Amino acid sequence: MIVFIVLLLVLYAAVLELSKNVIIGWIAAAVIAAVYLIIRAKGKKKGNWKGKRGFAAFLLFVLLLAGVWLVTQPPVKQVRAVNTGNPEVTDVVTVSEGDLTGVYNEEHTARIYAGIPYAAAPVGDLRWKEPQPAASWDGVRACDTFAPMAMQPRSSVIYDSLSRILGYHDYKISLHDNYREAMSEDCLYLNVYAPAEDSDEPLPVLFFIHGGSLMTGQSYHSEYRGETLAAQGVIVVNFAYRLGVFGYFANEELAAESANGTTGNYGLLDQIAALSWVRENIAAFGGDPDRITIAGESAGSSSVNALCVSPLTEGMFVRAIAESSSINAKHPYHTFRQMDRALAMGQSIMEEMGASDIREMRALPADRLIQTSYANSAMTVDGYAITKMPYLSYQNGENHEQALLNGFNAEEADAFMLGTKATEENYIPLLEAILGEYADEAAELVPAGSITPQQKIIIDAGGPAKGSLNFLYSAAWFTYSHEIWSRYMAAQARPVYEYYFTKTNSSLGNFHAGEMPYAYGNLWRHPGLYEESDYELSRIMQGYWLNFIKTGDPNGKGLPEWNMRTETNRELLQLDEQVEMTEDPYTEIYKLLDQYQDSLTE
Length: 602
Fold this sequence. Notes:
The protein is α/β, with parallel strands linked by helices. It has three domains: 70 residues; 321 residues, Rossmann fold (3-Layer(aba) Sandwich); 195 residues, Rossmann fold (3-Layer(aba) Sandwich), CATH 3.40.50. Helices cover 38% and strands 13% of the residues. It contains 19 helices and 16 strands. It has an eleven-stranded mixed sheet, with helices on both faces. It has a three-stranded mixed sheet with strand order 2-3-6, with no helix packed on it. The protein starts with a helix and ends with a helix. The relative contact order is 0.09.
């Protein structure tokens, strides 16, 4: 029995750690365990610890431990911009809403201004309305803490901890992370990262849009924080925007009440409002409003694509960086939908919520709305923020970016396909979902079982055809959209550079989002996970990204030559231990995807 109790206590300690319970929980649990063991030992010695008495005491012991776990759950807390106890405060900066200060990072290489409001809180009557100007404030606002993330569905703390262990492999036992990150409908805030020292000349600006399928994410995720790039001479801005049902819910009543007739693109309109705020205020931080590069990854990259075609953003930026997604296929596979589908889902959500009109929907608590079973994960043509299918804007030369750096990773779809088993029998039916009548031809090009995933975690119980299936889904969902984007830019004789990230490592490897800590200089946040070759590749990628942000050309001293994509040169820059130009491995599949996409429009 004593062995069982010890195992129970070890398991309980693991649960306390994984669920990030506060320290008092550990202390209370230790006291309860000690008291129980002492009482048990005395009872055993007196011989009165048998039968119901012993069982009742054990049950009470277990119930007390469960109670401790429940009452010592981690509190909700906003994340500080700098972890050190008393970071140095910056000089006062004046923006359109008032005066503010930021903090210096620990190395004193960058200034961080966290949690600056760029629009009014979209709550109450402003829920599902175009973003309104932020209110002014008196005095000096201390911008030393990141604002809450936008409302979004969240997993349990234990699940998040396990994902850090099994997915990212960077879980750390710490006394400083016993909290849950704050989340609020009042989320329209941005962060500015600037060099520690003022520059004699206005600096180029990177405006970064986070990913998360338009459903999840936060502005301050470690992989794209801006201190490292800021220390090398650019101003970095990232921000939160409305997500899910708050950002992409569509309803005819909302369109009717809007002066612009818009609905379904509230998160996109937030992004445009943030970009507008940056153009108006970035000079106060040392930035050049006429040298803004917009950038994003995953759904953030799709959003970059949307900003490139929105009539509301013309003249607001000069260049674009797009990582692992876009919406410029004739029939985008994700992050975009037709308005009739958006409205139909909106009606289904109202029925699900038991609401008869928008007044009742606005009266619902935010916590209730995020429980919807419908995924609001797509933009739409609303006639205001997006006026036509994006590919038509590119065909007409109406896109705004003057140069493009874009690309994808080797195993983009693999993590999204974890629950799918692929065999020779179901291989073609699974391909029909992305290739329709061209599934048979795709299976001839990439036979079932002909490709083995590089990262063994993806093999799991996925079946013998899993690697081939993942390869083709990566092409359809992710890489094809970059092929199209590069084609359009090359046809317009605009500079376009395309990459192919294939580096493996002990964390995300070359899965979806694996390139981000390299490009934005954040490998150092994960000590022990990356090797010297990773840091060297990160140095090279930062060089490319910085050069592109500054000049529109990623090439520069000490970097392997990155050839521009043209109508005749379709090579990609492979980013690995060797950085060199290479053929796109999906070229033949693109031909089938072109035919499939064309067949849908006939």
